Amino acid sequence: MAKSIEKLFRKAKGRIFFSTFVSNVYRLQQVVEAAHLYGRKLAILGYSMERALAISETLGHLKIPDHLIIDVKEIHRYKADKVVALCTGSQGEPRSALSRIAAKSHRSVQVQPGDTVILSPAPIPGNTRRIYKTIDRLFRLGADVIHGPKWISMLPVMEANTINR
After folding, report:
1. Is 118 helix (H, G, I), strand (E, B) or coil?
2. CA distances from 56 to 1, 25, 28, 88, 159 (A)
3. How far is CA 123 from CA 17, 25, 135, 163, in A?
4. 1: which of 7, 48, 65, 159 lies 20 to 30 Å off by Cα?
5. Rounded distance, CA 92 to CA 47, Å?
């Protein structure tokens, strides 16, 4: 597991919303491992994220411990420091789970003050305006948002160099 992800999970006091590309199975596995290590249940938000996890696990590319995943509708039953939500929307896509959460229009989840939102990938050119609109909304809701240079500076040197290319 990446030390940067482990460090973020260790420091987060509330719920963690982690957004990354669904195709980055390596990053998905890191989030699964960190959730398990810190005793957090994992909720999956977004159809494409659910589908990618299911396919990756079926093919043996992703290993998810039994009883780790919970239904998104059950999040409220757990203490804030016991939940991670893996969600779509790292590029500010308007109908993604994270964008709907930021706009307070998600039917099952709302961001609360003290939650941490991590946008793992660097912005793709052309998406910047939408990404920062989502980030602004999340800040206004009281979330601590980790993204861009702040996130990249936490990555190991090898991983950060890959992102900056």
Report:
1. strand
2. 18, 7, 10, 16, 22
3. 17, 18, 12, 10
4. 48
5. 16
**149 sits in which H/E element:** helix 148-152
Q: What do you get for the CA distance between the two ends of the chain, in Å?
A: 22
Cα dihedral sign for 46, 49, 68, 117? negative
Cα distance between residue 3 and residue 145, in whole Å:
18
All structural domains of the chain, each given as residue ranges with its CATH number in brackets, are 3-163 (3.40.50.10710)
| Whole-prediction pTM | 0.88
pLDDT digits (tens, 9 = 90+) for 13-63: 999 999 999 999 999 999 999 999 999 999 999 999 999 999 999 999 999
Q: What is the mean pLDDT of residues 86-98?
A: 95
**What confidence tier does 80 reach under pLDDT thresholds 50, 70, 90?**
very high
The answer to whether the Cα torsion of 138, 89, 131, 10 is positive or negative is positive
For 65, the enclosing helix (H) or strand (E) is: none
Quote the distance between the C-alpha of residue 132 and its chain's center.
16
| 8/20 Cα distance (integer angstroms) | 15
Q: What is the pLDDT of residues 112-158, one digit of tens each?
A: 999 999 999 988 999 999 999 999 999 999 999 998 755 555 554 43
